[in-house]
Amino acid sequence: MMKSKADEEDYWNSSKFKAFTFDDEDDEFSRLKESKRAVNSIRCLVEEDDDEEEVEKVSWSGEPVGSISWSVSETAASNQKTDREPAFPKINTDTVTISKSHSGYSLSSLFKGKTKGGNFQSFTDSLSDSSVRLYAPELRKPKSEYKDYVSDWSPEETVQRMQQGKVVSLERFRSLQDKLLLLDYAVTAHDGNVITAVLIYLKRTLSKEVLFRELESRQTALRHLIHYLTETRDQRLLLELFRALGRMEDVALLQYKEHLSIADENKRRDFLKSCLSLPFSPEDSSHVQDHYTLLERQIIIETTDRQAERGGKVEVFQKFPRKASILNMPLITTLYYCCFYHYNESEGTFSGPLNIRQTFKISEKQYFVTALAARAKLKSWSDVDALFTSRNWLGFTRKKSPLSFQRVVDILQKNSAPTQVLQDYVALVDDAELRISLAQKYKCHDIVINTYRDLKDRQQLIGYRGKVERGSTEEKKIEELLNNTQIRWKN
User: Fold this and answer.
1) End-to-end Cα spacing for the chain
2) What sign for the dihedral angle of Cα 325, 327, 331, 337?
3) What span, in angstroms and rounded, lies between the C-alpha atoms of 431 and 434?
4) Which position has the higher pLDDT, 123 or 206?
5) SS3 readout for 94-117
6) 417, 408, 476, 471: which is closest to 446 by C-alpha?
7) Greatest extent of the chain over all pairs of C-alpha atoms, in Å
């Protein structure tokens, strides 16, 4: 049935569809313009009223919030099956959306510079918030910054960065020339840590022959490498280095030090004996020979004394039991041991102190101090006195000491010598003031009184009379001196 013209007009005006004409704009483009007009109308409302609560909000996803419907459907205009050119190019609709609950901004906040909390900030500040990720093209970094990542540094710059504590990679220096240049710059910088770090890299990347050859002309770097190998106890490489450099004395000393790792005394003695043929310097060779002889002597003494101590027949071992073994002890400790347990033995025995002194050429002063300390420890005062007694060509005896008598008094006092023994040696101190000071310190009253008498100092003698006990022998002696008219006092 045919519709009238009036019915057709009514149909097209009342329907949501419109008749197609070439003059009509694309439906998608029309809706986009409608959306733009809606946004502009909202902006006008926001400019008129600053109260955010009265402005409708729209989330970034495009879903309607409240009563505002703002939807931009970015679909391709080519969906319409027509041969004409599309009004707009195809737009990808697979955009990432942000849920309504996570949207912290409204249109009013973007236009007026307010966040949901009500704090005023500009649109730029809103976008610069750390919680908002910006997908903007990154500007090109300076070339100097890119060098940090690619390690494009010269040897000199690398050394400077190492001095500053920055991380660098030495792997890029592959040629021998670059590696040696890097080492030279490190030496020039006078930084031991940098030199050692470069040497470790060269040790790992160069053959031993090349490394040793190049270090021979670089003595500073060579000393650092020797110190590094010594600290890390790389004995094998250190021996190879010394042999390559022709430093045979250092090779001998390094091999000699291996005795420290041998625990058994007999094996250590045999090892030291084998070291006697190594190319030591004359002075070092003498020391190694003494070390071997001393250990051999200690083994003999230790075996004999252990048996004597177990037998229980030697009095000195019963009164003063041994606290430790003599094996591997220093020379002076061995001498003290022999002066303590074997003092009266003849010079022909291995354990006699005089034999030890002669074999190892110990000086008179060193022997005297050691023997004095050992015999004073035993409270053998007769042996102590015999150490000081000497005879002149006329047969007269006198006390003589390679030490100062002040030092002798200190040693005797530390070993709890009685006052009478101390008094004999305090009297031998040459300086009068020092003699008086030591005598007063150790209460040798006779020394003080006799010294004041020799000085003819009556006033000092009267003053000292008040420091001794009343009715004592010392007080009576002072009274006799004060009443002696033959003494010419100076005061």
Assistant:
1) 167
2) positive
3) 5
4) 206
5) CCCCCCHHHCCCCHHHHHHCECCC
6) 476
7) 178
Segment 255-272 mean pLDDT: 92
- 389-391 vs 397-399, strand pairing mode: antiparallel
Instruction: Give the residue ranges of DSSP H helices in 115-206.
Output: 123-127, 143-150, 155-163, 176-188, 192-205
* Coil vs helix vs strand at 190: coil
Token readout for 140 is 């090109």
pLDDT over threshold 60, residue 132 = no
- The neighbour count for residue 451, using CB atoms within 10 Å, is 20
User: According to the model, what pLDDT value does residue 240 have?
Assistant: 94
Residues 6+ apart with CB under 8 A from 384: 372, 375, 376, 412, 421
Residues in the chain, overall count: 491
| pLDDT computed for residue 117 by the predictor | 47
Amino acid letter, residue 222: L
Q: pLDDT of 156-198, one tens digit each?
A: 999 999 999 888 888 889 999 999 999 999 999 999 999 999 9
Q: What is the pTM of this model?
A: 0.62
Q: How many helices (H) and strands (E) does the chain have?
A: 25, 2
Class of residue 374 by CB neighbours under 10 A (exposed 0-12, middle 13-18, buried 19+):
buried
Give the separation between CA 391 and CA 385, rounded to whole angstroms.
13
Q: Under a CB-based contact definition with an 8 Å cutoff, are residues 79 and 87 in contact?
A: no
Structure confidence at residue 4 (pLDDT): 60
Of 338, 384, 376, which Cα lies nearest the Cα of 358?
Answer: 338
Residue 134: name the closest of 144, 126, 142, 145 by CA. Answer: 126
Side chain identity at 258, as an amino acid letter? E
